[in-house]
Specification:
Blueprint (H helix, E strand, L loop, with lengths): L1 H23 L2 H31 L1
Length: 58
Amino acid sequence: MSRFHEVKALVDSLEEDMDKFYNKSNKTAGTRARKTLQDLKKLAQEIRIDIQDKKNEE
């Protein structure tokens, strides 16, 4: 369940950068948002693999 909390933390940190990029035209926030989204994608893939492995063990 700790991975779920990691996902929530990434989404929370993403929210601020998305706001800065879209509403305040802060280009650096866009770069941070893209990095966070990539980290989120990687974490989601790891979680998917973990779930599949646990499912196949049974």
